[in-house]
Amino acid sequence: MAQFSLVSASVGLITLQNPPVNALSAVLRQGIVDAVEKALCDPKVKSVVICGQNGIFCGGADIREFGTNMRGPPLIPMIHAIESANKPMVAAIEGSALGGGLELALGCHYRIAHSQARLGLPEVTLGLLPAAGGSQRLPRLIGVPAALNLITTGRHVTAAEALQLGIVDQVTDHNTVDAAVKFSQSVAGQSLDGRRISTYPCPVQPNLDAFFEEAMLKVRQSARGAIAPVACVQAVRAAATLPYAQGMKREKELMATLFTSGQARALQYCFFAQRAVGRWSTPSGGRWDTSKPRPVHTAAVIGLGTMGRGITVALAQTGLSVVAVETQVKQLTEAKQAVSGMLERGATRRGAAPTPDRITYSENIQAVAGADLVIEAVFEDMALKEKVFRQLSDVCKPGALLCTNTSALDIDHLASQTRNPELVVGMHFFAPAHVMKLLEVVYGPRSSSQAVATAMQLGKKMGKISVAVGNCRGFVGNRMLKPYLEQAFFLLEEGATPELVDRALEDFGFPMGVFKVSDLSGLDVGWRVRKADGMVESGLSTGPSARIRQGRRYSPLGDLLCEQGRFGQKTGRGWYLYDKPGGRVSKSDPWLHSFLEEYRVQQGLVARRVDQQEVLERCLFALINEGFQILEEGIAAGPEDIDAIYVFGYGWPRHRGGPMFYAGMVGLAKVMERLDHYHQAHPDEPSLQPCSLLRRLVASGKKLHSQL
Ligand SMILES: CC/C=C\CC(=O)SCCNC(=O)CCNC(=O)[C@H](O)C(C)(C)COP(=O)(O)OP(=O)(O)OC[C@H]1O[C@@H](n2cnc3c(N)ncnc32)[C@H](O)[C@@H]1OP(=O)(O)O
């Protein structure tokens, strides 16, 4: 609802009241319409201030209403009525004014913001555009380039930037409502002719056609198939070229296509999934709302290789004291330099003062004795990690949480090396650890819910999307990646090229195809794991049995490349060719193509035409099938957890909602039918056999996601 009151004898104060973010629900919109009418009819009221309760102006349209039968007064006429009012309307912006919230403020004649406020039009991140007049008013207010930037990126600006851009008229460090009330009194009775943004001409943009062509090209390149950024450019172009009323018509048409698109549904699902993963639960009954995290003031990191350095930076940036331990002196010296460089660059990027140095370095593991929480980040080797955990169990103070940054190893086994297995959890960071948003918090059967809660809370403090997952080989993310990679290798054997497979995945929306990623992360990483698993035979034997290992189809292609010293970017050669070791730009490699041809001949394989659809179905459906298996085993509590992991850690295109959501969009019956089809053709590939949960869901007609 919206509360109306008369303050300072002549100011009508309208307070938006819809916790937690004053989203513009049907009830709130009705409340605003009623309150505005009251204010305009009351002769005592000479000016009006609109504010939000609980320190937040407005988080925009109520996203939960999208996709339902929208009731209540629509936003556009409501904002129009505010702009047309004959009494000054002033927005008092505290906290956030986002999306429809900012559009409401743009309908007001003046905007006063608190210095800590954030403003923006983030609709594009929800697969929409600012369609309550935002795409037409903002360019008229601040010019086309600045408006286009805000609308196509959805970025939030600070009050200071908003003032500089001309979005707000005044910024205050004091009580925003008081400042707005005072301001509104000062302008009461003045003409409002020059204050209605919809009547402004759009500032002239030189070389309009070239400007928008370039903008469109840029957006199409970075959008990777997302349609909302493209529609945003079209809407701003309408503002720059059409009268306001026609621009509004265009805004409405563009919004109509976006609103009903699968992409908008997927992006809105991601918005809520990102928040839902914070409400974790474990099979043993641990829950986010009943488990109290332990306080963490000092954290320690053991091992200062690439991951350990990133984790140290991420911890230091949260303001914690950090003890960083590395037993090799040379590595320690290099790490010190690298960490301080990363902290400095991070501060420059954020426009903040460098993080005060709260890091203590040591060569001795005894230095972690006082830490509340330790993150072990030594080399991915079980024997080494076992040793470190036994030492930690002796050295650490009672109650200290012991975490391992492993991407696949058994958490429970490591816990068994300690005196207090309930204090052990996995914290699987993604490289670079101070940049990547995802954190898998892995609980073993003996991890206490307090240990999970502590790691989840620390992840949140570090700005991560933390997802609690159960203990199994590869946890959720890497476990699902295995069948995906496997299928990509098999497709090469059957006739595809790395270029074809990567192109299909990049057209789907991944920033990089599977072979480019493999070159980037290093082919030797997987080789080492496969060797440890006893999968690798050196040299190449021939015939189908040479490609069956441990009872299932196996492709030795990756191993053969490694035997040639082709480890990817770091050696300048992998699935692609690079201009030098460490080079970043991939080129097609004729050697690789000949190698594949020779390999097929040797193995008696006949190359056939593989198309993009087959690449997507085999790689993605195999990955999704593993996701269903993970759900069935209770390793992930819900599909949102898997989707968040893939969107925030594995480059899954957000506008496709994550693998499990995508499966729902495609239709579970279709996914199952295609898996069955491929499994019949490849009975030695168990990852193509639909798992029982998928079969049960299809048989019952049940959906995995209520949004679909
Ligand atoms: C014609 C169409 C016109 C306009 C279109 C729009 O306006 S689309 C909406 C545009 N607005 C946004 O995208 C803002 C989304 N919200 C946020 O960015 C943040 O929530 C915000 C406002 C910065 C507050 O952040 P904070 O970290 O404090 O809270 P949190 O994100 O955890 O949110 C708290 C709960 O509120 C729910 N919520 C937030 N915004 C909305 C919204 N616009 N509609 C509905 N619900 C919203 C959020 O989901 C959280 O609830 P939970 O149950 O935990 O999911």
Topology:
Elements: E1 2-7, E2 11-16, H1 26-41, E3 47-52, H2 75-84, E4 89-93, E5 96-98, H3 100-107, E6 110-114, E7 118-120, H4 134-142, H5 144-153, E8 157-158, H6 159-165, E9 170-172, H7 176-187, H8 208-223, H9 228-241, H10 244-259, H11 262-276, E10 298-302, H12 306-317, E11 321-325, H13 329-350, E12 359-362, E13 373-376, H14 382-395, E14 401-404, H15 411-415, E15 424-429, E16 438-443, H16 449-461, E17 465-470, H17 477-494, H18 498-508, H19 514-521, H20 523-532, E18 548-549, E19 552-553, H21 557-563, H22 590-603, H23 612-633, H24 639-649, H25 659-666, H26 668-681, H27 692-700
Parallel strand pairs: 2-3, 3-4, 4-6, 5-7, 6-9, 10-11, 10-13, 11-12, 13-14, 14-15, 16-17
Antiparallel strand pairs: 1-2, 7-8, 15-16, 18-19
Helix pairs in contact: 1-2, 2-3, 4-5, 4-9, 5-9, 8-9, 9-10, 11-24, 12-13, 17-23, 18-23, 20-21, 23-26
The site of ligand LFKQWZQV has 22 residues, from β5 and α11.
Tags for this entry?
single chain; 708 residues; alpha/beta; 2-enoyl-CoA Hydratase, Chain A, domain 1; Rossmann fold; N-(1-d-carboxylethyl)-l-norvaline Dehydrogenase, domain 2; 4 domains; eight-stranded mixed beta sheet; six-stranded mixed beta sheet; 27 helices; globular; binds ligand LFKQWZQV; oxidoreductase; EC 4.2.1.17
Describe the protein's architecture and organization.
The chain is 47% helix and 12% strand. The protein has four domains: 2-259, 2-enoyl-CoA Hydratase, Chain A, domain 1; 298-473, Rossmann fold, CATH 3.40.50.720; 496-603, N-(1-d-carboxylethyl)-l-norvaline Dehydrogenase, domain 2 (Orthogonal Bundle); 612-700, N-(1-d-carboxylethyl)-l-norvaline Dehydrogenase, domain 2 (Orthogonal Bundle). The protein contains 27 helices and 19 strands. By secondary structure, it is an alpha/beta fold. It starts with a strand and ends in an 8-residue tail after the last helix. The structure holds ligand LFKQWZQV. The site of ligand LFKQWZQV has 22 residues, from strand 5 and helix 11. Ligand LFKQWZQV is lined by residues 20-21, 23, 59-64, 75, 96, 98-100, 122-123, 126, 128, 131-132, 272, 275.
